[in-house]
Design a protein that fits this description.
The complex is a heterodimer of chains A (about 300) and B (about 325). By secondary structure, chain A is α/β, with parallel strands linked by helices. Chain A has 2 domains: about 1-115 and about 195-280, P-loop containing nucleotide triphosphate hydrolases (Rossmann fold, 3-Layer(aba) Sandwich), CATH 3.40.50; about 120-180, no CATH class. Helices cover about 35% and strands about 20% of the residues of chain A. In chain A, the strands form 2 sheets. In chain A, strands 6-7-8-3-9-10 form a 6-stranded mixed β-sheet, sandwiched between helices. In chain A, a hairpin with a 2-residue loop joins strand 9 (about 250-255) and strand 10 (about 255-260). In chain A, helix 3 (about 125-130) runs parallel beside helix 6. Chain A is globular and about 60 Å long. The two termini of chain A are about 30 Å apart. Chain B has one domain (about 5-320): Orthogonal Bundle (ABC transporter involved in vitamin B12 uptake, BtuC). A two-stranded antiparallel sheet of chain B has the order 1-2. In chain B, helix 3 packs parallel to helix 5. Chain B is mostly helical. The relative contact order of chain B is 0.18. Classes of the chains: A alpha/beta (about 300), B mainly alpha (about 325). The interface of A and B includes residues 110, 113, 118 and 192 of A.
Chain lengths: ~300, ~325
């Protein structure tokens, strides 16, 4: 699949996103999400304790950090899937505090999940059509009479097919989503999220478990989102990917934001290297475990 | 052994009021369990609500039969709301526990001597047929042929019952091919994913619970139409019988619940006729009372075999089996 894809010209990164000196919680020129004093504890454990965070609009922001840093919990809090003990946050200037997840999604902030949630016994096309917002046919009484929703349904189907072609899933449209591979499910979930016409797309580990052959095409899809005017916030462990596509990186550790900045700068930050990347990030795994020497690898 | 009588009874149960009642209740369960993934273990409670709602409206309040239908339906909607609002926010297995308990609480309320004037406690209710039979458009007499020979009242119950089954099946078919049904099936697969797409999952689950509950109540009403309301009918095992019928036919299908109910009742009638006959003629080494309860053992075995070897049912999509979680 990747062999017949010609590498795209490198796309420029967005710069000048922040105002003032770079530090955790720095103000952004045009923030889409502003969060203040968000705290979530599970019993005695403080999973998330964020003083201030702004996510820049029309940019790709990566949220990184070691396992247990609170990235997914923060994701769940921002999308209404979990409720914080304290804190306020807003999306596009509107307060999101206490809003249930479905309202958050209706406002244009859509998310995907770390463990992919393809709706197995629905076909790929049905999965896609489910994503469309404000469907007349989803109202109980109106759904009984196809006259009210047939035209809208046709338009939704056309849009779903266009997206499926883009995500190379068009050949699978009549198959159950359960029959897709792990990587295809990631693609389907992302494509389905786009059916909601989001302004902010939040991807929780979009690359986890994806075959390397699909990685490049998924990366291109994420870069396309930015070109189409959307904002992307994603959680990822793959440093190469973060360096490759992120315009801005936020680093979490133990529930707090320990650093943020453009990817090249953040990767040099000694606190980040200590907290997350580790001293051996550039070494072969065999060297780290002592089975080879560094010379052998080269 | 009188094979003629056994086969005649068996054939008659094809369109028996009990068969029709089970079909309605099973369609209700297919909305709950098959399409929305709600594990409702209290369908017997919805049926009891329908039956008692209908009988009490006639006996205590003197309402006409159609008003009794409306009361039964309205009461089942209220019951669904009381049941659903506190529990549908929780995970699915909690609903199973709450519904099984609620159905039992309801049955015991109908059974207790405290409300004997209204509910008839252990005796149940009877003699509420005047209005329904007065509305019968069929002239007096006996109609039909062979095993399907009934009097005017017998036909009135069956025709009305079958018409209700047809309307209910049509409603479910219209809903499930619509975007509303798509949301419901999405919720069955993964409600968080559907929530993330901006759907109010709680509202859909509540709508599904009310809709299936209304069909369950209609089943209870049809069950009560020909004879009497007996509190011993609406026990937990009724819920499992309806589940057996549903799973036999196919949980997420339109005609599965109907086909399953027909097969269930034909089989039940056949066994309840043939087993005692076998016992009396000495072929089965048990008394005829033991023989007639043996059929419930067989029903249990059948339910187990379906769930293990053919969970999609007779009309279900074979492809689905490949992906059973």
């Amino acid at each position: 699949m990747s062999s017949d894809v010609t590498p795209n010209a490198p796309r420029p990164k967005s710069t000048g996103l922040h105002s003032g000196p770079i530090q955790p919680g720095v103000a952004k020129v045009d923030p889409i999400i502003v969060a203040d004093g968000i705290k979530r504890t599970f019993g005695g454990l403080t999973a998330v304790d964020v003083d201030h965070l702004e996510v820049p609009r029309h940019a790709i922001t990566a949220l990184i950090g070691p396992n247990g840093a609170g990235k997914t919990t923060l994701f769940n809090l921002l999308t209404g899937f979990d409720k914080p003990d304290a804190g306020t946050w807003s999306f596009d200037g509107q307060s999101l505090s206490g809003k249930p997840a479905y309202r958050v999604a209706r406002m244009g902030q859509v998310r995907t999940f770390q463990l992919t949630k393809a709706l197995g016994l629905l076909t790929v096309l049905e999965n896609m059509k489910l994503g469309a917002k404000e469907q007349t046919g989803e109202k109980f009484w109106l759904s009984l009479f196809p006259g009210f929703w047939r035209r809208q349904e046709a338009a939704i189907e056309e849009k779903a097919r266009e997206l499926l072609v883009k995500f190379k899933l068009d050949a699978k449209e009549a198959d159950f989503a359960a029959s897709l591979s792990g990587g295809q499910r990631k693609l389907l979930e992302m494509a389905r999220a786009l059916m909601t016409d989001p302004t902010l797309v939040m991807l929780d580990e979009p690359m986890a478990g994806v075959n390397p052959a699909l990685t490049q095409s998924l990366l291109d899809k994420i870069l396309d989102l930015k070109d189409e005017g959307m904002t992307v916030l994603f959680v990822e462990h793959d440093m190469a990917m973060v360096r490759h596509i992120a315009d801005w990186v936020v680093v979490m550790a133990e529930g707090r934001i320990v650093a943020e900045g453009p990817p090249a700068d953040v990767m040099q930050n000694p606190a980040v290297i200590d907290a997350y990347l580790g001293a051996h990030q550039e070494l072969d795994l065999g060297v780290v475990t002592g089975r080879h020497t560094a010379d052998e690898v080269e | 052994m009188d094979w003629g009588q056994i086969l005649s009874n068996t054939a008659s149960s094809l369109i028996g009021p009990a068969t029709i009642a089970y079909a309605l209740a099973a369609i209700g369960l297919s909305v709950h369990f098959g399409y929305a993934g709600l594990i409702n273990m209290g369908i017997a409670g919805f049926m009891a609500i329908g039956a008692y709602g209908y009988a009490i409206s006639a006996l205590t309040f003197g309402l006409p039969w159609w008003a009794g239908f409306l009361v039964g339906i309205g009461a089942s909607i209220v019951f669904a709301l009381i049941l659903g609002i506190p529990t549908l926010r929780l995970r699915g297995d909690y609903l199973a526990i709450v519904t099984i308990a609620a159905a039992e609480v309801l049955r015991l309320l109908f059974l207790t001597g405290e409300f004997d004037d209204v509910t008839g406690s252990a005796d149940g209710l009877s003699g509420y047929h005047a209005s329904f039979r007065a509305a019968n458009p069929i002239p007096d007499g006996t109609y039909g042929f062979g095993p399907w020979t009934y009097n005017a009242n017998g036909w009135w119950v069956r025709i009305l019952g079958i018409a209700i089954v047809a309307i209910v099946a049509l409603i479910v078919w219209s809903l499930m091919r619509s975007p509303w049904g798509r949301v419901l099936k999405g919720i069955r697969e993964d409600e968080d994913a559907v929530r993330a797409l901006g759907k109010n999952v709680f509202a859909y689950k509540l709508q599904a619970l009310m809709l299936g509950g209304v069909f369950g109540a209609l089943g209870g009403i049809v069950y009560a139409l020909p004879s009497a309301v007996n509190p011993g009918v609406y026990v937990t095992s009724l819920t499992f019988f309806v589940y057996t019928a549903l799973l036999l036919g196919g949980a997420a299908t339109i005609f599965g619940p109907i086909l399953g109910s027909v097969i269930f009742w034909v089989l039940q009638t056949f066994l309840s006729n043939v087993l005692p006959a076998l016992a009396t003629s000495g072929i089965l080494p048990v008394t005829s009372t033991q023989a007639s309860t043996l059929r419930f053992v067989l029903v249990g075995v059948i339910l187990m075999l379906i769930v293990i070897f053919s969970p999609q049912g007779i009309l279900g999509n074979k492809k689905e089996l490949t992906f059973v979680k």
